[in-house]
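Here is an idea for our session: we take a single protein and study its fold together. To get us started, please write out a protein record for me. Once you have written the record down, we can walk along the chain together.
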Amino acid sequence: MVIKLHSKRLEAGGGSVIDKQELLFKQLKEIKDYWVETANDGLNEDQDMIWSQVEEEYKVLRTKITSQAEREAYQKVVDEVIKGVMHSVLVMIDGGDELAENVLIDLTERDTNESLSGQTALHEEFFGYLLDTEDE
């Protein structure tokens, strides 16, 4: 199975694998940050919960998570869980779990068919990217 990444925005010449990995990591971080914020916003009474299938559970959490410190703790927990899910998916793409016994997955750039994995472990590189960008 190959998951294609289309990187039309890179300058002529296509950019390096590292440039393409950085685009991927940036997008993954933006997805993570969006859902952490969305989950945290779900604790607000006036929040439109159309995105959620667990609105009743959010109502319960709203009565339990009331202080700023509790909200910050909740936000950190959600952030950690999402990072864990992303890490597991990238480990799977890197061939580091049981799926690799039956199916090998790769991320490739659509136009060049170049692997984004290259000789690196995406799951490790992604966490390095997060360490670099989240400390800023």
Q: What stands out?
A: Helices lie at 17-41, 55-64, 68-93, 122-134. The two ends are 36 Å apart (CA to CA). The longest strand covers residues 2-5.
